[in-house]
Amino acid sequence: MQADASAPLQWFFACPQFIEPLLADELTRYGAESVKIGHAGVQATGDLRFGYRAMLWSRLASRATLQLAHGFGKDQTELQALIDSIDWQQHLRPEGTLKVRFFGLNDDIRNTQFGAQWVKDQIGDQFRSQHGVRPSVSNTPDLVVVVNLHKGNASIGIELNQHSLHQRGYRDLDTHAPMRENLAAAVLIRAGWLDMLASDAATVALLDPLCGAGTFLIEGALMALDIAPGLLREQTIAERWLGHDSTLWNGLYVEAEQRRSAGFTNAERFEFWGNDSNAAAVMAARADWRSIDLPAARWTQCDLKAMPAPTLATTGLVISSPPFTTDSNVVALRPIYDALGQWMASLPETYRGALFAENEAPIALTNLFYSKEYRFLNSETESKLYTFDKLLQKERPTAWIAEDLANRLGKNLRKLKGFIKQGHTDAYRVYDMDIPEYAIAVDRYADWLHVQEYAPPKTIDEKAAEQRLQQALLTLPESLGVDPKKIVLKQRRQQKGKNQYQKQGRAEQSLVVTEHGARFKVNLTDYLDTGLFLDHRPMRYWLQQHAKGKKVLNLFCYTGTASIHAAMGGANRVDSVDMSATYLEWAKDNFELNGLQHDPYRRYRFIQANVLDWLYDCDEYYDLIFLDPPTFSNSKRMQDTFDVQRDHIALINDAMRVLSPDGTLIFSNNFRKFKLDAQVDNQYAVQDYRKQSLPLDFERDPKIHGCWLIRHK
What we know:
By secondary structure, the chain is α/β, with parallel strands linked by helices.
């Protein structure tokens, strides 16, 4: 039965969060009454003509739901009564198909999938009791039923859009784009594009110098040429809904086609220009543009610094989304933002600007004065739109150099000057959270910097911490004379068990550093740690000086750096034990780097085993043992896990059992709260070696590790 086109109906139009006010204004223009802004959507009253017009023309909505019933729904009984209050035969044929979208939970329904199936059964029972048949389920249904539960209340409606309203038809559904079309439309509206179109300017330009998928340009063109998004979809309305008024819909559709034709007659007023350095992106954007027969546009593929001047329409809007992700290196982004700001500032004063980016993006590096900022949610990502009424750059560019950090780095370098000049190593620490506001550790590996960001305290505002990190990343290359492209940033959290050894990425890039004549392969990108613990440098050198003619055991050997020093010091035998095959291979690479790979007498052995179990079963003796266990580890012997504080007595006893009578055990660990048990002191001759084991570049942090030389009494 066809619906009464003039009867007032209740609607809910969904949209991305934070653009609800814009959607409310849009729906009001289409004839909505009693508009009420909600969370990620707008409720409105309007007849069927209004609903159809909104589905055809809305640039901001995602879905259109015709509300059929609203009431209590705290349990199945209340929800069933609400479902039964609807005459479903007015909306669906008995032999038709349906789909149920279910949101929320109540006292009886604790799973949305079950809720959808249960609602389908209730609707089906109504049909079966009257017709003996019931509708079937389909992924391409005649009717989509939507049920929402919230705090004991329920609303039931039918979704009348055939496809999501954000889809325009110019983009393949499988194509990934940085933002949905309706979000791009909202950003354009906030940027003032509609106001610019309504102005009396003779010519108007829309420019995107970093156009990517071209979404801003296409959406801007649809607005300028008065093209309804619904004209571009193969299907917009649920035509198999029994209340569908095809005459009304066709009339509105024809009207929209006429407006599109009229819009094209005014096309010469507009200039559209998209540019990107990525040739594939420009090609894809052009293909989408042409797929909906838009007028000719200007497309270029070049770097921002090579961007030509626009053809200078009377006025215009330059809008773009500069690159940024949470793991972006702000140092690498700085030239892009700087070039973007310079190009925007070169435009005539009649032009306006807008930049859309994630919240933490360093927009200040454009050196432009923004007028307003607006909050958006791009999928799950908090983002902002910055608008620029005047494209003016600051007289003094934003350097974002942290002077206090730069001064501290200079002070640290002066302290390390003699140490660096000696040339014993080109891998050392230059900064470790000396200033609490800059919570990073900075290590130099040859001509690279390895920067670790510590998690800020909960009392520190996340945005402030992010800004300080960006300031630090801009300060480091200038203060330390390092190429900005040779800075690797990692975020460090407290690690337990094997987490500290888990692979972080797949760059698989390594470089070689030197230390007291030894060469080591380090990897700054793929793991949390680099393959070389800088704070143990003095103890590795101690091994080199004391290993001649001795049998050496390196437990938890990691990448074998201590083993290398022992071998270079003339050890007769070096055994390296670790459970990780990856790190044992790395250790072999380090031996090869130092010309130690040829070993016909098996002087250098690499043993893959659980260190704790292997040591317990070991029946050999060693003159020097290097024991640097993790804070936590798995073990079959020691309950479920190894805890260095709880279990170090047993571990030391096992090591001392295989230590020769005149031998030395170097025991070290990085647990900051570690205390050596008095029982160890009573049983063995223990020398506290913490002070001697601390290198100059780690003196500021004496708790970085503990170290003891342990011998038999």
